[in-house]
Amino acid sequence: MRFQKTAAIALVAITTLGMAACNRGTAGPGGEGKPIVLGLAVANLQADFFNQIKQSVEAQAQAKGVEVQVSDAGGDSATQVNQIQDFITRQVSAIIYIPAGATAAGVPVKAAERANPPIPVIAVDRNAEDAPGKTFIATDSVAAAKQLGEWVIKQKDGKGNIAILQGQVGTTPQVDRQKGFEEALKSAPEMKIVAESATMRWSQDEGFAKAQDIIQANPDVDVFWGQADAIALGAAQAVANANMNPKPLVVGFDGDQAGIQAIRDGKLDATMVQQTQLMGRMAVDSAIALINGEQVPPEQLQEAFLLTKEDKQKADEYLETHP
Question: Which residue ranges does the chain devote to CATH 3.40.50.2300?
Fold first, then answer.
């Protein structure tokens, strides 16, 4: 499969780069021996998913002897553009960039490229249009969402009404997750998407409100898919409040701490667990390699892991040590 091949190449490359850059706290020829300072531009630290990446970046940077400066856009693209401009003004060595939205996501990358000297940008989780950064690190969301869709089809014997609670429309994860899930549904013509509703903040309260509306209009819905665990948790709450019988299947995506705990407690039926800790480490290693004039793969897609409520032991393992 595509994600397995890409992930293997990326992991080999990054392992090599990590060894070469180990304990290298200053830039090489391109950075004139200056201390390495990484700017980490996070979309929204209210989300556990992004916090997981932040924690991993900070831990890996500490292990490599480099400094990290963090900005939080709070989900606002305009705020993030200004924050990255501030990183550029400070002349950070590289920028690890998690875009706050699809709109104007490429603007900060192009500004960093025009800096003197140019500042390499490592995009994580979300990619700006035309992929202008030096590398893109993320889950292969198309493959992961397809796997989740196939599991849903199996649970429902290929029949049922599906409601999709989308994430922020137009962002890389939303587009890819939608694509993968719909690819799975091609094999099950008796499974119909009866409702789709978008959220702006990938949040539980939005998921709850949207699911309530869908239940009113489609009381026979059989599956709720929240394109993030937080959205799915909102849907699960709406399903419980409506006392639906039979109870719809509720699935998510991300594998954040709250989502995994909800799987463990039986509140969600399944999710796809992303390797957030791995992505954070890879972002730091890629940044150090680029600063030192080394090459990294332009795209580094990682596998996600299906977790269902039947596998409580695996949920406990993920709660103890997130991948």
Answer: 2-139+274-302, 141-273
Q: What is the pLDDT of residues 255-296, one digit of tens each?
A: 999 999 999 999 999 999 999 999 999 999 999 999 999 999
The whole-angstrom separation of Cα 90 and Cα 106 is 20
Output the pTM of the full model: 0.88
CB-based contacts of 245: which residues, under 8 Å, 6+ apart?
Answer: none
Nearest to 128 by CA among 87, 74, 81, 90: 81
Query: What CATH number matches the domain at 2-139+274-302, 3.90.1150.10, 3.30.43.10, 3.40.50.2300, 3.20.20.140?
Result: 3.40.50.2300
The yes-or-no verdict on residue 17 having pLDDT over 70 is: no
126 within 8 A of 251, measured Cβ to Cβ: no
Phi and psi angles of residue 307, each rounded to the nearest 5 degrees, phi first: -125, 125
Collapse the DSSP code of 50 into the 3-class scheme (helix H, G, I; strand E, B; otherwise coil) and give the result. helix
Q: Residues 21-46: pLDDT tens digits?
A: 344 466 554 455 789 999 999 999 98
Tell me yes or no: is domain 141-273 CATH 3.30.70.20.
no
